[in-house]
Amino acid sequence: MGQRFYDWAVTDLTEDRPGHSHPSVHADLQCKHTTGFLTVAYQRLGAMQQQWLDKNPDVDKDREALLARQTRIAETVLNGTL
């Protein structure tokens, strides 16, 4: 979330889209870039998510079961047997 993101976002905001030309949008982006807000916010979010996952180990089992189910359904669809 460093300079590359900021450069991309500023470029994206120059496109003619509703709301993109409002000065507050540019001010908000500049503030977040200057303070490093997004980097800190996403690092903190990741840490909080990891803490939750560490306390709830069954989530990984549920995830694996969901992925297996999705794979079975996708194979059924792709094989035309649905």
Short account of what is shown:
The chain has helices at 3-13, 23-35, 37-55, 58-78. It is mainly α and 82 residues long.
Describe this structure in words.
This protein is mostly helical and 82 residues long. It contains four helices and no strands. Helix 1 (3-13) runs antiparallel to helix 2 (23-35). 0% of the residues are buried.
Average of the residue pLDDT scores: 83
Unreliable stretches covering 5 or more consecutive residues:
none
Shape: flat
Total number of beta strands: 0
What's the oligomerization state?
Answer: single chain
**Count of helical stretches:** 4
Terminal CA distance reads 43 Å
Strand content: under 5%
| Helix-strand string | HHHH
* Sheet with most strands: none
The whole-angstrom Rg is 21 Å
Helix content estimate: over 70%
- Structural class, by secondary structure, is mainly alpha
Task: Please name the defining characteristics of this protein.
82 residues; mainly alpha; 78% helix; flat
Topology, pairings included?
Blueprint: H1 3-13, H2 23-35, H3 37-55, H4 58-78
Helix pairs in contact: 1-2
